[in-house]
């Protein structure tokens, strides 16, 4: 056993722990889609019930504790909280700090990863496309502005009045997201951000970047990128946008700070 103590057949380069809302069916498949050889993804779920309210986000944040405890037993190298809105509707630093302590590994959250990605690309003004209701859209605008970005526009699909609508976010066709991103875009925006880890947006990033002539960031793409760079892995991953192809430098905790 001593001879193979460092070996992991599906994570010999890195094991990424991922905590997703229980309703999320997109984040994990998209992480695997981006994963280079030697990088594995190991997932735990945090219960998410009800409509899109502050109370539901708080309950999910509390559920990340047991999810982090589970990932600790998988001996992951880093843990990502794969919920964009869940990590700006509740105090991100508190959630990430608690997850990291419980898992015994560095931790980050999707919303913080987006901040780091925007900074890595030199973005100052961003157009935002979301599936959220207005309560969440307002807070996302505030969150991005707190980190120094100008939100040139924000378009939401208003999904989340019921739990059924929340689950339906994972069924929005990529082609619809392509059109939503184009509607959100503004000439003054340096980049377009498609928010939510349960949106199947990865497949339209390359087409959008080609057609808009600017970087396109998605929650899952930014979160996976941040995991790799936080671990010091500089793999250039093609087909999913400039962020993964050209932003190869390692990042540290300062990349996520106000």
Helix content: 40-55%
Low-confidence stretches: none
Radius of gyration from CA coordinates: 17 Å
Alpha-carbon distance between the two ends: 44 Å
% residues in beta strands: 15-25%
List how many beta strands DSSP finds.
8
Give the structural class. alpha/beta
CATH topology-level name of the largest domain:
Rossmann fold
Task: Provide the CATH architecture of the largest domain.
Answer: 3-Layer(aba) Sandwich
Order of strands across the main sheet: 2-1-3-4
- SSE succession: EHEHEHEHEHEHHEHEHH
Shape: globular
**Chain-averaged pLDDT:** 97
Overall domain count: 2
Main sheet: strands, sense, barrel:
4 strands, parallel
Regarding CATH, which class of the largest domain? Alpha Beta
Count the DSSP helices.
Answer: 10
Pfam family, one: Amdase
Organism: Pigmentiphaga kullae
Protein name: Arylmalonate decarboxylase
InterPro entries: Iso_Racemase_Enz_sf, MaiA/AMDase
